[in-house]
Amino acid sequence: MIIKKSTLLAGVASLCLSVAATVQVRAQGSDAYGSGLKMNLNEDGSKYVRMIAWNQVWFRSTEMNPGTAINGEGASSSTDIGMRRLRTLLYAQVTKRYMILTHFGINNQTFTNGGAASSTGTGGYGAAKKPGLFFHDAWNEYAVVLPAPEKKFSLTLGGGLHYYMGLSRATMASTLNFLGADAPIFNWPLIENSDQFARQMGLFAKGKYGKFEYRFSYNKPFATNVTPTTAVAVDNNGNTKWSKAGYVEYQFLDSESNLLPFKVGTYLGTKKVFNVGAGFYTAPDGTRNLDNGAVKKHDIKLFSADVFLDMPVGTKKAAVTAYSVFYKYDFGPNYLRNLGIMNVGLADASFTGTKALAGAGNAQATIGTGSIWFTQVGYLLPTSQEKPKLRIQPFGSMAYKNFEALDKASTQFDLGVNWLIDGHHAKITTQYSTRPVYTATDKYSSKGEFLMQLAMYL
């Protein structure tokens, strides 16, 4: 349909309020959703506005690190429910060449944290309540060389707060269609330090050349100012210098869309994809340490190589998905970040035993100077039904982390099942994960977490 300019604003508002059962969206593993929450602005559909909305709810049972307290009480385990992601993405193809995109939402609200700034104590704005909405992405782009069947080369330039951060496929992963319940987090090595939830502000170029796809960006990292107190490097970039990032891959089989930066985790057998890629991220003087009492600056230098396979198998709609990536990270001497996703634990002041080096709750050594190898594999079970009510996809992953700051490398695993009610649009994921818990630099044991995710997107 054609929408007049005078009614466009009203139409967008109506669209945002009318997420009804009749709306249809198309995605991996399901053809029941059509073109999604989309309004065409001309008859051939080349100009349009589209909205994507998604929720991911987590129920967890977690073994806590030694030395953990939850809301003031010592705890060795915890069960909780939380909002991992509540997001909305809007983009408009204003002309064939020009597109604008905004992406906003919240993340990581638990019963103890994740609320609005300064939300503490008890009451209407108590701890964890009323989280603050913020923009994840906001950019404009212009297609300098339009993609076309007869052309080998295409080029689009853009700028703003963006996700074209290079490094690896997983660094630009879509959160709508993970193979596992979530990303391993170390795929976003700057997360919430010199980036804003895996994004930086800058300029980017993207496009294709034959079977090659490329993405490059030139960005201004967010300021960091941790004061160095030892020989261990910390995030402090001073008068921030511009960062550079890029990722290039060769797509041997089906060509993937690069309209948006978000890389698919599993196509559920709807495409034949085999890609090999490599990427980088560099930031001059990104960290600092003390060297014989003097402050010394260090460049951040990150590199990766990865391979991705997604392929239908046999004649009964089975499919295999596999991804493997190797990261080589250099943040400066002995740099190490300990992170815990939706961590409900704090340090227990009364604990007298040996505490975890990573801290309380579910924190673990996640990102640091050193190397990481991550591999995951999934198999979509076959079905003879034309329109099955449920598809089942078991998966597993392994991460090997060898950090300079720790004397012993660690290995951890995820095992789970995707219960696909309607492709990625409506699914339940059950997953058991292990994590390393170091009590000394050369000694670690493993703790476990069971997770059930309820995920839906339109």
Give me the secondary-structure topology.
Elements: H1 5-17, E1 37-40, E2 48-63, E3 68-70, E4 73-74, E5 77-93, E6 98-109, E7 134-145, E8 153-162, E9 200-209, E10 212-220, E11 234-235, E12 243-251, E13 273-291, E14 294-313, E15 318-330, E16 336-339, E17 346-347, E18 364-368, E19 370-380, E20 391-403, E21 410-422, E22 426-440, E23 443-457
Organism: Flexibacter flexilis DSM 6793
Protein name: Short chain amide porin
Keywords: Signal
Give a description of the structure.
By secondary structure, the chain is mainly β. It has one domain (5-457): Porin (Beta Barrel), CATH 2.40.160.10. 3% of the residues lie in helices and 52% in strands. It has one helix and 23 strands. The chain has one helix spanning 5-17, and strands at residues 37-40, 48-63, 68-70, 73-74, 77-93, 98-109, 134-145, 153-162, 200-209, 212-220, 234-235, 243-251, 273-291, 294-313, 318-330, 336-339, 346-347, 364-368, 370-380, 391-403, 410-422, 426-440, 443-457. The strands form three sheets. A 16-stranded antiparallel barrel has the order 2-5-6-7-8-9-10-12-13-14-15-19-20-21-22-23. It has a three-stranded antiparallel beta sheet with strand order 4-3-17, with no helix packed on it. The radius of gyration is 23 Å and the shape is globular. The two termini are 21 Å apart. The model is unreliable at 1-27 (pLDDT under 50).
